[in-house]
Amino acid sequence: MIRHELPQYISHVSADGNRIESVHQHLDEVADMAADFARAFGGEDWAYRAGLLHDIGKYSNEFQNRILHDGPRVDHSTAGAYELARNGDVPLSYCVAGHHGGLPDGGMRGDQDSTLIGRLTKAQRCLIPPYDVWKDEVELPKNPLFLPSVFGKEAKKDAAFSFSFFTRMVYSCLVDADYLCTERFIQAEGRAHPHTKGMSELRDMLEEHLSSFYPPSNTINAVRCGVLDDCLKASKLAPGVFSLTVPTGGGKTYALMRFALNHATATGHEFRKVICAEPYTSIIEQNAEVYRKVFGEDQVLEHHSNYEFKDMGDRKQNTMRLAAENWDRPLVITTNVQLFESLFANKPSQCRKLHNIAQSVIVLDEAQMIPTQYMEPCVRALCELVKHYGCTVVLCTATQPALNNYFLDQGLVVQEIASNPSGLVEQLRRVTYKSLGQIGDEELIHKILENDQALCIVNSRKQARALYDMALSRGLMNQAALFHLSTLMYPKHRSRIIETVRKRISDGRPCVVFATSLVEAGVDLDFGTVYRAIAGIDSMVQAAGRCNREMRNDVRDSCVYLFEPNPAYAVPAEVRQCASVTTSDIPDLYKPGELPSIDDLSTVEGYFGHLYSYRCLDGKGILKRLQQPGFSSGIVSIPFAKVAAEFRLIEEGASTVIVPTEQNSRDIDLALQREATRATMRRLSHYGVGVYDSDRDALLRAGAIEAVGENVFILSDSSRYTDDVGLNLYVKGGEAVFL
After folding, report:
1. How far is CA 122 from CA 76, 116, 150, in A?
2. pLDDT band at 565 (very low <50, low <70, confident <90, very high)
3. Backbone angles phi, psi at 179, to 5 degrees
4. Measured between alpha carbons, how far is 668 from 86 in angstroms, rounded to an integer?
5. For range 67-93, the mean pLDDT
6. Is the Cβ–Cβ distance between 731 and 702 less than 8 Å?
């Protein structure tokens, strides 16, 4: 019970009932904070207007009854959306309408659902609680005197996409400000922020660390220092789009950060942070640890679905967990999924971080890993960030995708950072490529087991398991020296095996691994011999990066054997197409014998050019939906919700099976009792195996799994998971069958 005089219109009441916040106070605070967030891209006037009107629906008697007497829920966001739409502020109308539930689809005339037009129709027909008294306390400022550059002539060709992108960025400012201001009131104080360093200070810390690398102590270190020097030189160029084409072992982890931090301070452009996006969490974990040792724990935010933030008890002290909500750190190491899905998202939780991407150096490590069916939308979003939101983008990989023309279509030229990328390929060449032609499993196993240490990478989980079983049955090598790695093992299990393998390699003990492509990028293994089933050139070159990684052996003694596997093994259509393009570019690939190097830049560029010509680079029609919106009732109808639902970089393994262990037994119990929190499920994700829908259904029919959430299951039949191979999907007649 509040024990003092109340203002007439209340926005929030503290849990103990001793403090209240007026609607007017909340609107002012959110408007000011949202404007401050949007200043980075010139949208402060727009964000201020959105903040000022986002909660005017709280000026209704119905809402006051809700907050004071726990009355029924009230639609309080349509009111502001309606007033803004009437005033011609359509982008802001979307933002306010969705500031709790998510940016809605625009819809069409006559819609009565949750689309923007449906919501506005409700307000027009007086089907929401009256709120007119808002005008007594809130004065709506005039429309902004200028339009952001996204609506300028240079964007006329793609104005609709720019419109949707700008709307989402303003939405980010609004929802983040709304959340932070509400949190500040509820907790009676703001967040505790550690000292975060500026770009100049971080640059100096890195330069001090790199000084120990000079003068280089050997040939490979000399090459790496050369790459570092190229990055320092290129960092002085104007903001834009860059590529860094460096083979595996070229030292790109430090090189990329040297370019980014020096670029952020040397160009006269105000950069606020560096964002590194990686395709796999294994790469993130390695790179984040490297950066934390240089810059300290407080400066580096590692953000991905599997990361476990330290629980310090008092939520106010959990600064990193809170920083992950809106990327409030100078250095962010995250996944491609987090970055790109957020750029096309519609929910507040995903969009809060977007305004903090403005004025960033965005590094895309292993850039070729962006799924081809989303390539055009991703490139288009990157172009928007560079052209209108003060960003620089760096595409880094040993196998550079042929994206120059796609950036050029948006008026952006990709500039190469390395002064002699072709020379780097020669200087860092570690292996000799040889073809085995088509080969059966029996013969392949015989060749592999001739080596004390070897890695074999294939295109299907079924073949990886079949080869492992066959190697065991031959008895030619101790079982302790044979290993199997696939996505049918949960992440912590895979990590444990990889560490064991790495130790055996280092100790010179026998070690043979049969794996799927999960070991190709970001897994620091150094075998003397690698066998790789024919796939895309980028995959085969990445596999070669696991061979003679530290250049301890002569190139002639370190072989990567490419082979055509038994066609009886089913592989994804995408992999088959990549292999087909590869063999069309390298006709001798099927002929046994030594091959010319497949990693030269012209071969790689030609491969990607051919691959992209065969594929639709906007497989879900994302760009088409955003570039050709509908128009109804004077509203630009953008399908925000539909696009967000369709834009999913990872679509396989939609269901997750959690494997019980001694370490996660408490969390398993909470999940089974339906008492698991988000933190609980995040911890359990380290023990999750992704399965296809058909496999999930088969496991359900067998009674081997139990549902604990949407598309999340607990493995109830412990015999289905073993330490050597992971999850057994099927069991027939006492014999396990794996796919």
Report:
1. 12, 10, 31
2. confident
3. -65, -50
4. 52
5. 92
6. yes
User: Which residues on adjacent β-strands are paired with residue 689?
Assistant: 657
User: What type of residue sits at position 683?
Assistant: R
CA dist 103 and 361 (Å) reads: 27
How far apart are alpha carbons 393 and 167 in whole angstroms?
22
Q: Which residues contact 77 (CB under 8 A, 6 or more apart)?
A: 54, 55, 57, 96, 97, 98, 99, 100, 101
- Positive/negative CA dihedral, 117, 120, 121, 127: positive
Q: Write down the pLDDT at residue 4.
A: 43
Helical segments of 188-315, H only: 199-210, 219-234, 252-266, 281-295
C-alpha span between 33 and 22 (Å, rounded): 17
Q: What is the C-alpha separation between 565 and 442, in angstroms, rounded? A: 11
pLDDT digit string (tens) for 523-540?
889 999 999 999 999 999
Concatenated DSSP letters for 6-64?
A: PPSSEEEE-TTSS-EEEHHHHHHHHHHHHHHHHGGGT-HHHHHHHHHHTTGGGGSHHHH
DSSP string, 599-666: TSHHHHHHHHHHHHHHS-TTTT-HHHHHHS-EEETTEEE-BHHHHHHH--S--S--EEEEPP-STTHH
CB atoms within 10 A of CB 139: 7
Angle between the N-to-C axes of helices 375-388 and 159-187, in degrees from 0 to 180, rounded to the nearest 10: 70
Q: Provide the edge-to-edge strand list for the sheet that holds 559-564.
A: 482-485, 511-515, 453-457, 529-533, 559-564, 432-438, 593-594
* Percent of the residues in the chain that have a pLDDT greater than 90, as a whole number: 62
Overall average pLDDT of the 552-564 stretch: 88
Give the C-alpha separation, 117 to 101, whole Å: 15
Q: What is the spatial distance between Cα 555 and Cα 433, in angstroms, rounded to a whole number? A: 10
pLDDT at residue 730 is higher than 90: no
Q: pTM for the whole thing?
A: 0.90
- How far apart CA 366 and CA 418 sit, in angstroms, is 16
pLDDT at 280: 81
Whether residue 510 contacts residue 453, with contact meaning beta carbons closer than 8 Å, is answered with yes
End-to-end CA distance of the chain: 62
Contact between 71 and 53 under an 8 Å Cβ cutoff? The reply is no
Q: What angle do CA 140, 141, 147 make, to 5 degrees?
A: 125
Tokens standing for 728? 């057994």
The confidence score (pLDDT) of residue 666 equals: 92
Tokens of 90: 């359509």
User: Domains along the chain?
Assistant: 10-187 (1.10.3210), 199-426 (3.40.50.300), 430-598 (3.40.50.300), 655-737 (no CATH)
Model confidence pLDDT, tens digit, residues 235-265: 999 999 999 999 988 899 999 999 999 999 9
Rg of the chain over all Cα atoms, to the nearest angstrom = 28
Averaged pLDDT for residues 209-225 = 93
Which tokens in the block code for residue 407? 């950036």
**Rounded-to-integer distance, Cα 97 and Cα 244, Å:** 42
Q: What DSSP element (H or E) covers 388? A: helix 375-388
Q: Whole-angstrom Cα distance, residue 706 to residue 208?
A: 53
Averaged pLDDT for residues 116-142: 89
With contact defined as beta carbons under 8 Å apart, do 527 and 505 qualify?
yes
Task: Write the CB contacts of 677 (distance below 8 Å, at least 6 apart in sequence).
Answer: 670
Q: Is the pLDDT of residue 317 over 80?
A: no
Q: Which range, 120-134, 169-183, 315-329, 573-587, has the best average confidence (pLDDT)?
A: 169-183
Give the H or E element holding residue 379. Answer: helix 375-388
Beta strands in 467-611 (DSSP E): 482-485, 511-515, 529-533, 559-564, 593-594
Annotate 221-258 with three-state secondary structure: HHHHHHHHHHHHHHCCCCCCEEEEECCCCCCHHHHHHH
Is a pLDDT exceeding 80 seen at residue 307? no
* pLDDT surpassing 70 at residue 146: no
